[in-house]
Amino acid sequence: MRAAPRTLSLLLFAVVALSSERSSAQEPFDETELPPVEELEALEDLDLDALLGLEVVTVTAQKRVEDLQDVPVSVAAVSGAQISKLRTSGSDIRFLAFRVPSLSIESSFGRTFPRLYIRGLGNPDFDLNASQPVSVLLDGVVLENPTLKGFPIFDVDRVEVLRGPQGTLFGRNTPAGIVKIESRRPTQDFEGYGRATYGSFNYLGLEAAANAPIVPDLLAARVSVLFERRDGWVENTFENPANDRLDGFDDLAAKVQVRLTPGSNFEALLSGYVHRLEGNSRVFRANIIQPGTDDFADGYRRDQVAHDGQTPQDLTQYGARLSLEYDVGPVRLISITGFQSIDIRSRGDVDGGFGASFAPPSGPVFIPFPSETADAIPSLSQITEELRIASSEWDLFNFQAGVFVFREEQTIESRSFDTLGEGAPENGFATQTQETTAWALFASAWVDLLDGLRITGGLRYSNDSKDFTARRTQSPVGGANDLSFDTDVGADFLSWDLSAIYEVVGDVSLFARASSSFRAPSIQGRILFGDEVSIADAEDILSFEGGLKALLFGGRFRANLTGYGYFLNDQQLTAVGGGGNANRLINADLTRGYGAELDAELAPVRGLNLALGLSYNNTAIVDGDLAIAPCGSGCTVLDPQVTVGEGDMATVLALIDGNPLPHAPEWIANFSLRYRYDFDPKNGLYLFTNWSYRSRVHFFLYQSEEYTDEFMVLGDLRVGYLRDDGFFEVSAFVANLLDDDSRTGGIDFNNLTGFVNDPRTFGVEAILRF
């Protein structure tokens, strides 16, 4: 007879507590005023985490919806609300770099072709068919070619970063991990938003989304559009009317989704994507490093260069996805079909300056020879299909199994230009074509053995093959004008993983995981300047990780701590640059890595949220015989060197045994603070600040004094006003608050060329939700 009054009192408490979240009081929760936690948990519809400060974070790291705290994998999730605050002033996918422990991203292609690294594993290869060990999935469809991975992140529910091998359940080539981008899906609600942003360098951003039921309870649609433009902020001091201002862009992207739900047991979701980009390629800067040091050279100015070459960039990308899910009772049948196409053309002033030492005037400082090149993918198509069967949440045992098929066809064109000639005529041309076919069978199962203990295991058999052709019809350096290569590679591999998670007490769990994955063989045929095609054999990884996941202090503090170690056999490495504008693939006998990751979040008082991320990543190449060509630009090499050959054929190489991997900082840290003050039930102010740090990185496999950057510190600050429960919002922001000026990469075959991050920017933003 006491159950009804108790339930009523708990519901009343919940309503009062939740509504007080929007009051002006900012005092800590007094736990003595709360009913017993076990009584709160007994309420079926009460969201205890939301009540006490932290939202429940759901992820699909194992292809099923789960609480982040129940997944035996090192996962970080960035919500759509967080992304809207972090992606300021037209930031591309690189805004995620250093905002997540163990994740870094860089690019030498501007706003496209991002190169992602997780736990130090990535690939600095700049060729357009480069294979990367970090996969990016957009709504469950793998984006394999690196140029596809630059699709803008907007109108998303969340981004998940899965650290460590994911070879059992996901796509292709996942030894390092996965970045999963999940768009907001159509619902039966009529809602949406419009966002307008104006900032430094005449940046204009317009973003809008509309969701509506077309046929109630049957058909719904969601349309979202993003348009961004920015003037070039880098002044070209060389007289070049076509390139007077650099690093500007016009970027348009759209997503259209239609969701059909004719019954509770069937769902179809059809999505279409388009991306159109016009702008500049990466701004390379000649001789910006002081020889013999890691300092900027005297006279360096971030907002100026002197280019005599052209730097246009143009991209058109289309995509489509159809997912079908049918619940037949004990099991669900899932199909995900994806299509991607891209046409990209990018031209760069690779020497970063003007003229040449033999054709004065030239500069800045010493330019041995001009280098102006262009790369294009005039044709790329990717088709994927995944068929899966999964149990419908059985009691103690569950499983999923399926088949995955991947097909890609692409053509690459590479050109060289005589910058010093009248009109910069084309003086070199080569093509590559590559056809890739892959398929896999996979299965995963999990069982609840004891109270609080879950064991998960999985297997995946993968088969991968590539057919490759390279042709050169004009050499810019006096080589053969009729050079051609035809080759093919293939491999198969059995990936596995085994994990366990055990709830020790309350919301504190321990987990452990062992896993393997592989990356298929790669072919590098950039023969515009070279006369060889290089092939890297398949690599495979064995990884171990374990840690703790805890939700403490009445749901106000969440902490996930992971320690890991891995052994990567036959790692595919790219010897970038060196003596020429080319890449060469090699395999290292062994690469080992170990480290730790912490993701923590705290809501100490109403309206205040603190988040901390920290990672330590130690990587080392273990191969006593592996030697590569060091820089051709006169840098100070720190590695032991050996001479191979004699006389005119003698070559000096750098031994890279023991070196860390390129673009692999040991330390990444990020901190964010979000505070909201409501001065009446519907209106309030907020402050959001986010800071990130990364330690020293080396840009190449060899180490030198010059091609490195000591550290980077980035800070963003935003203050805003919310009206009518957030239906209207206006804010002002500053990105890169300290105006950190860091090198993010280099080119080593000509002069001491580098490129840098964006400067401090300011802006204002207004959002209307409905």
Would you write up a description of this structure?
Helices cover 5% and strands 56% of the residues. The protein is globular. The relative contact order is 0.13. The protein contains four helices and 45 strands. Strand 24 (426-450) and strand 25 (453-474) form a beta hairpin. The protein has a 22-stranded antiparallel β-barrel. Strands 3-8-9-6-7 form a five-stranded mixed beta sheet. With 770 residues, the chain is mainly β. The model is unreliable at 1-52 (pLDDT under 50).
Q: How would you classify the helix and strand content by structural class? A: mainly beta
- What portion of the residues fall into strands of 2 or more residues? over 45%
Radius of gyration (CA) equals: 27 Å
Mean pLDDT: 90
Poorly predicted spans: 1-52
Total of DSSP H or I helical runs spanning 4+ residues: 4
How would you summarize what this structure contains?
With 770 residues, the protein is mostly beta strands. Helix content is 5%, strand content 56%.
Short key terms for the protein model shown above:
770 residues, mainly beta, 22-stranded antiparallel beta barrel, 45 strands, 56% strand, globular, disordered N terminus
Describe the SSE topology.
Elements (H helix, E strand, L loop, with lengths): L2 H18 L16 H5 L6 H5 L5 E2 L6 E2 L6 E6 H7 L16 E4 L8 E4 L15 E5 L2 E3 L12 E8 L13 E7 L7 E9 L3 E13 L3 E12 L3 E3 L8 E2 L2 E15 L2 E15 L23 E2 L6 E16 L3 E19 L4 E3 L2 E5 L8 E20 L5 E21 L8 E25 L2 E22 L8 E23 L2 E12 L2 E3 L9 E3 L2 E14 L4 E20 L6 E20 L5 E15 L4 E2 L12 E4 L6 E5 L11 E14 L2 E12 L2 E2 L9 E2 L2 E12 L4 E8 L7 E5 L5 E4 L4 E9 L1
Parallel strand pairs: 6-9, 13-17
Antiparallel strand pairs: 1-2, 3-8, 4-5, 6-7, 8-9, 10-11, 10-45, 11-12, 12-15, 13-14, 15-16, 16-18, 18-19, 19-22, 20-21, 22-23, 23-24, 24-25, 25-26, 26-27, 27-30, 28-29, 30-31, 31-32, 32-33, 33-37, 34-36, 35-36, 37-38, 38-41, 39-40, 41-42, 42-45, 43-44
